[in-house]
Model the fold of this input.
Amino acid sequence: MHRSRIGVVLIDHPAERFDAAADFWAAAQGTPRQEKRATAEHPYEELRPFEGGVQLALQRTGSGTAPRVHLDIETDDVDAEIARVVGLGAQVVERHESYAILQDPGGHVFCVVPVQTGEDFDRHATTWP
Done:
């Protein structure tokens, strides 16, 4: 048995357009950008979370990468969650030590990652057999 949920919605932008996009999305939410800005070494910048603790974040991607939105499914058992979503029709694109990049049957990228949202995960995760 394991648990999972969609924990993070990421808005991905290549480095050359990241700052303008981050300024836009922070203003669109009505909040200032965080002091901790995304860098090549730490490519994530958080925005205000959605209700239910789902995090909204920006990801600084490599030069030339197309802008996109992708989801992170967080789980307390990465291998079990990968197996579950592959059984539903997903395909593994890249497997890393602690997470995986996958595609849904329509070709959209998403990730399966360890728990990132702490107590929000415990309150909102679905338990799978």
About this structure: The chain is about 25% helix and 40% strand. The beta strands are 2-14, 44-46, 55-61, 68-75, 91-95, 100-103, 109-114, 126-128. The chain has a mean pLDDT of 93.
